[in-house]
Design goal:
With 409 residues, the protein is mostly helical. It has one domain (54-402): Na+/H+ antiporter like fold, CATH 1.20.1530. Helix content is 77%, strand content 0%. It contains 23 helices and no strands. Helix 1 packs antiparallel against helix 13 (212-232) and helix 19 (313-319) packs antiparallel against helix 20. The chain is globular and about 70 Å long. 44% of the residues are buried.
Length: 409
């Protein structure tokens, strides 16, 4: 929060500070950091708890979707719901003695299409040549917006597990706490910050206070600021960043002004490499072989194949007529197949693990919660590995194996 707020503030007067006052950026940053260390250490500590997720949210600062509203709503509503239900059925079938509610909680982690992987895979030379721009846009836009639905699916299952003897009470708490507060707060806050950031930047540009470098990093700083502030308030910072990014680029002014600069793609690349390198270090590789009583490796492989094929493809094939951006069956097959699982799944796994540990401390079904947490960790991480590999080689395979622009404009 503090880092993002400082960069936003400095960006608005960067040219005045460096060209008129002749103060260096390092001097200003060092003095600001010294002030923080003495007066607002608590706030810095709180914002540090969400720093690990900040790059994920910044990566979602994309241009607003250009697809028709009905297609966008179809992708986020029926398709996303079917993905959740289908994933739950598959997990319930493969995991021994797992309840449907437990399967629903686990599947809520892997149902959303990951924005980081979607953005990195459907953008680039291969994708631009073989995948229609409208199809690229709807995949990226859906992957950013569906995090709110994933959050609601996860907590619907968790509340039903916690308040199993009072389902109406669980639904009431879910609607008030998750839908109205968490998701509602995130959307409203994202709209406000995105609008305010755009107005502030335009005003500072007119005053000629903003240097080019600060102009380029402004949107990223806005994302970091939202992560800290919205996370501290208990909102869904990922969803808030996506909403703010869409509002911030609603008139296309900022996107057009920065389209020829390579700073954002470079930062995205750096963050993606860093994040997934870190994931490679912390993935419980040994558990894929050791948890034979829970899920053997052959079962994990079969389950992952079933999820990759059936989790999304049937829903898109059934509803693609309502999504104008998907105007051929080839588009429908690709969009149905292409539903990467990555950073979002890890984020929701962390939320699920923290919540189940809290229930265990409260004495709620300790054995079941332990099994749910262990199963979720095993399934989610294996699906992340499977998706990164399978979806990561999709675009090159289209070029190398098919040799035909099935997905051209």
């Amino acid at each position: 929060m503090l880092g993002g707020g400082f960069v936003i503030s400095f960006s608005l007067v960067s040219l005045v500070v460096t060209e008129s006052l002749y103060l260096s950026e390092s001097f200003i940053a060092l003095g600001t950091g010294a002030f923080w260390s003495r007066s607002v250490y608590l706030g810095l500590t709180c914002s540090g708890n969400t720093a690990g997720d900040s790059w994920c949210s910044v990566a979602q600062q994309i241009s607003p979707p250009r697809t028709e509203v009905i297609g966008y709503v179809t992708s986020l509503g029926p398709v996303m719901t079917c993905m959740w239900i289908m994933s739950s059925i598959i997990v319930w079938i493969f995991v021994p003695q797992m309840t449907m509610l437990g399967a629903l909680a686990i599947s809520a982690c892997i149902a959303p299409t990951d924005p980081v992987l979607a953005n990195s895979i459907v953008k680039g030379r291969f994708a631009d040549k073989f995948i229609a721009p409208r199809l690229q846009n709807i995949i990226i836009a859906e992957s950013g917006a569906n995090d709110g639905l994933g959050y609601s699916f996860l907590f619907l299952a968790l509340y039903l597990i916690e308040y199993g003897d009072n389902p109406l009470g669980a639904l009431s708490i879910w609607f008030s706490d998750t839908i109205l507060y968490v998701i509602g707060l995130s959307v409203v806050y994202g709209i406000f910050i995105g609008w305010l950031g755009l107005k502030m930047l335009r005003w500072a540009i007119k005053k000629k206070w903003v240097g080019r470098e600060s102009f380029l990093v402004f949107a990223m700083a806005l994302g970091f600021f939202i992560v800290g502030t919205c996370g501290m308030a208990g909102g869904d910072d990922v969803l808030a960043c996506f909403v703010a990014g869409n509002v911030f680029t609603l008139d296309d002014w900022y996107r057009l002004e920065t389209k020829d600069d390579h700073l954002a793609p470079t930062v995205d690349l750096l963050l993606n490499l860093t994040a997934f390198s870190y994931f490679g270090l912390i993935i419980p590789w040994g558990s894929f072989l050791e948890n034979t009583a829970l899920l053997s490796l052959p079962k994990l492989v079969c389950m992952s194949l079933a999820l990759l094929v059936l989790r999304r493809l049937p829903a898109v094939l059934l509803t693609h007529k309502f999504i104008p951006a998907i105007h051929t069956w080839q588009h429908a097959v690709f969009a149905g197949y292409f539903g990467p699982i990555g950073v979002s799944a890890v984020f929701y796994l962390t939320v699920l693990s923290e919540y189940t540990r809290g229930l265990q401390r409260d004495g709620v079904s300790g054995d079941f919660m332990t099994k749910l947490q262990e199963t979720a960790t095993l399934v989610v991480w294996f699906m992340v590995v499977s998706s990164v590999f399978v979806h990561g080689i999709t675009v090159p395979l289209i070029v190398v194996c098919v040799h035909a622009p099935f997905f051209g404009p």
